[in-house]
């Protein structure tokens, strides 16, 4: 049995390597696809490699090009860098020594966590040194009384969540990439995800951050206090700064109690107006136990069932809503959700629906939503957007894009975190082309800006979206951000070509 398991693990890892290789050779270099010029940075020399080996140990400096393939290409297989070197530190001290050396030698650095980012921020553009946090995966402490988790930046979200469960706690965030993304990456992107409706943004739950600055100085803001009003809140600058201001090395985060009862309802409706109506009823009827409100359209359902061979548990409908409740009293919560379901069906707002109270059924329903990004990846080249919009306008953008791109694209789908006003617009085509790209952009950004939305609700700007920041932020805001960048990283070595737009 053990041998069989080992053999199948070996086969799976071989097929993973083959897939990465195939994607790698098919993805053009970022510098060929996009107009971007290498900054005036130093080039890695053999003395640099020796110094990095002295800092982290020989086996934690990677220079073999084939071992670097997966770290040079993003999850979406849309951008590809040319790094020749990855360093894998284990401690804050090692990160500090690496950055000190890079700063002295003017070597550009790309911090990398789980490499699940969706905007091209996590991979180098040219030959930046990849600084991976994969070995920085230590849980420092879990306090079951205060609910505070303190850990290194490279802890994988799902693994940390399992440790937290042992103390009756859960992480305040959850996302489809949980099996690979790092908590440090989550903080650096200010990830939103599926629990934000209930537990709020990381700007509220993260209590402390330790980060190493570009010159190697350690900025220790690793407080575990819930309240601290002394001066500027520097950790907030690290949250969502996408590796451009410092390398997050450790964090403390407030974790809620694991709810005693979780239930899920999955509903089908005929129009987006009814989707909104259901959301309103859910807020009113489910009140304090409501923990997630997600939606997807029929195009999404078609893609996820077709590409991932999954099953729609209810009748085919134009829209679907997933409602989750989390509470402390199973019979009370089930009864409340059951009554809500009955009401929306009787009132003719929902056309079909199902209730899941057992783990297996809930997982199957959540799987339809959580694996949407993966399903769309099977559909072709993905243009991905995560807009923040007034909720009543959210779906108008999907309709407008379909109209605008008629005959040009394969799928135009809308789904996302309805309860947060966060639309994931995904547009697919067989193969990337500049013509399709310019049909899609700036159309979608202009539309969003006209309707007072944000061009990124949760994924950030990374490499691919940085030139569009001005659709959401004023010139004064962007200028101030550039001054902050200059202060933290005068030589601009930290994640160059990312987040901040060029022309300001
Ligand atoms: P990476 O992808 O490695 O890096 C992301 C950015 O952070 C890069 O700019 C990188 O340079 C920087 N960075 C990483 N680690 C550090 C560090 N220690 N210090 C400084 N900078 C660092 N995002 C959401 O917000 N909500 C979702 O629901 C969601 N769902 C997803 C589902 C799937 C299937 C996938 C593939 C992605 C999803 N994402 C989502 C996007 C992504 O998972 C998140 O942005 C996540 O927070 C990235 O974490 P990571 O460790 O993979 O970071
Ligand atoms: C999600 O909510 C993620 O599933 C990914 O943010 C969204 O792939 C996307 O467009
Ligand atoms: Zn999302």
TrEMBL record:
Its EC number is 1.1.99.39. Belongs to the FAD-binding oxidoreductase/transferase type 4 family. Residues 79-258 form the FAD-binding PCMH-type domain. InterPro entries: FAD-bd_oxidored_4_C, FAD-bd_PCMH, FAD-bd_PCMH-like_sf, FAD-bd_PCMH_sub1, FAD-bd_PCMH_sub2, FAD-linked_Oxase-like_C, FAD-oxidored/transferase_4, Oxid_FAD_bind_N. It comes from the Eukaryota. SUPFAM superfamilies: FAD-binding/transporter-associated domain-like, FAD-linked oxidases, C-terminal domain. It catalyses: (R)-malate + A = oxaloacetate + AH2. Keywords: FAD, Flavoprotein, Oxidoreductase. Its cofactor is FAD. The keyword Flavoprotein applies. This is D-2-hydroxyglutarate dehydrogenase, mitochondrial. The lineage of its organism: Eukaryota, Metazoa, Chordata, Tunicata, Ascidiacea. It holds the Pfam family FAD-oxidase_C. Catalyzes the oxidation of D-2-hydroxyglutarate (D-2-HG) to alpha-ketoglutarate. Also catalyzes the oxidation of other D-2-hydroxyacids, such as D-malate (D-MAL) and D-lactate (D-LAC). Exhibits high activities towards D-2-HG and D-MAL but a very weak activity towards D-LAC.
